[in-house]
Specification:
Keywords: Membrane, Signal, Transmembrane, Transmembrane helix. The strands form five sheets. Strands 11-1-2-3-12 form a five-stranded antiparallel sheet. Strands 4-9-10 form a three-stranded antiparallel sheet, with no helix packed on it. The protein starts with a helix and ends with a helix. The chain is 34% helix and 18% strand. It is an alpha+beta fold. The radius of gyration is 29 Å and the shape is extended. The N terminus is likely disordered. The protein has two domains: 55 residues; 330 residues, no CATH class.
């Protein structure tokens, strides 16, 4: 009887450990926390006569992708019976690591002095892609101006072609990311390079060039009356972000009856390789001298910033939910920890370098209670055994 009572007392304690999870990202409370975390710093600005926040410290940090997560939410744009009612929303967790410590070979990027952040997938991809593109552009232009002799100077013969020279220089050096087209091929062979990744950072209808009968413009891709959409989605384990083909404008339902290659004629870029890699992308504004610069406006915006932080990183930092309790002392006067509780619900679990996601973790308080009461149970069991043994000895003595 005593054993049965003890077991009944312990059952609620084990239930308690399961009943104290972290706040779920799917819950209304979780969504509310993230929204508030984004607005905290904006509210502080308004209370300080709209003084601009300085981001000088961010210039010494690099963005490191930590993982992605998918939450289900009601689709407010569902207008007819064929629209998806419950849509998927991607979230990305990233880390700002000190640039001198950030490592592409570590899944975490760095182990100290960092800040963790969470933001919508489309917002992250747009800013990350811009930052990465400008970093690549800087490296390519630097290499072209200092390592490649591709300027049409007087010492070049009449058959010199700058496009061929640049292509060969980059290819021979293994800098294929600097090549946007192959000048040795015609435009038809380069059709897959007409796909602009920047246009598909969020769910977007697939549009094809419409040059039939000399006409210009674009048309929406349709087959058998169905429209198709391309957008980013989170991999099953949360360690990669791919592009996929979908049948709805929220990119929730994957197209299973056909493929992008069947519809368009070439393989969908980033359908098997992640849009975001393991690289650390610096937040430091980097400029190069080039007369023919297609990003003059972006450069002008960055040049106007006295804090030397790239515009992409400013956008990421301002719009993200923040958990800065691991930043080194003195980096910021008042570290923002508004999103720490929320991010515990999408804790990144790294196993052999693979990023996975867990929706909750066990409560430390509940675990401690279980250990204490388990020890009490063992002590009580020993005491019952001791009493039973003593009573048995006395009974034998009386006999």
């Amino acid at each position: 009887m005593k054993f049965r009572i003890l077991v009944l007392l312990l059952v609620p304690l084990f239930s308690l450990a399961r009943a104290v999870p972290e706040i779920s990202v799917e819950s209304d409370l979780g969504q509310h926390l993230l929204a508030n975390a984004r607005r905290v710093q904006e509210g502080e600005n308004n209370n300080n006569n709209n003084e601009a926040i300085t981001f000088e410290w961010v210039a010494g940090y690099s963005v490191k992708f930590q993982g992605c997560h998918v939450v289900k939410q009601w689709n407010d744009n569902a207008n007819n019976e064929n629209d998806v009612r419950i849509s998927s929303q991607g979230l990305v967790r990233f880390r700002l690591c000190p640039s001198s410590q950030c490592s592409a070979n570590k899944a975490s990027g760095c182990s100290k002095g960092y800040g963790d952040y969470v933001i919508g997938m489309s917002e992250f991809l747009s800013s990350f892609y811009e930052a990465k593109s400008r970093e690549i552009e800087y490296d390519c232009q630097y290499y072209l101006q200092n390592k490649c002799s591709c300027q049409d100077t007087d010492d070049k013969d009449d058959g010199f072609n700058a496009d061929y020279c640049e292509y060969d220089c980059f290819n021979n050096s293994g800098m294929t990311e600097c090549v946007d087209r192959n000048p040795y091929q015609d435009d038809g062979q380069n059709q897959n390079q007409q796909f602009n990744l920047e246009n598909y950072m969020q769910c977007t209808a697939v549009r094809l060039n419409n040059n039939n009968n000399g006409g210009g413009g674009q048309r929406v891709l349709e087959q058998n009356g169905a429209s198709y959409y391309v957008g980013p989605y989170c991999s099953e384990k949360g360690g990669s972000i791919y592009l996929g083909l979908f049948t709805d404008d929220s990119c929730t339902n994957a197209a299973t009856d056909t493929t992008f290659q069947t519809l368009v004629g070439f393989e969908l870029p980033y359908s098997t390789s992640s849009i975001v890699g393991a690289d650390c992308v610096s937040c430091l504004e980097r400029e190069y001298n080039q007369q023919d610069d297609q990003n003059n406006q972006a450069d002008a915006n960055d040049a106007a910033d006295i804090d030397a932080v790239s515009e992409s990183c400013e956008t990421l930092y301002q719009n993200a939910g923040k958990c800065e309790n691991s930043l080194a002392s003195g980096i910021v006067d008042d570290p923002n920890t508004s999103a720490c509780t929320y991010m515990e619900g999408i804790r990144v679990v790294r196993q052999d370098g693979i990023i996975d996601t867990g929706s909750s973790r066990s409560s430390a308080v509940a675990t401690a209670l279980i250990v204490i009461f388990a020890m009490a149970f063992c002590a009580m069991a020993f005491y019952v055994w001791y009493l039973r043994t003593r009573l048995g000895v006395k009974q034998n003595t009386l006999l």
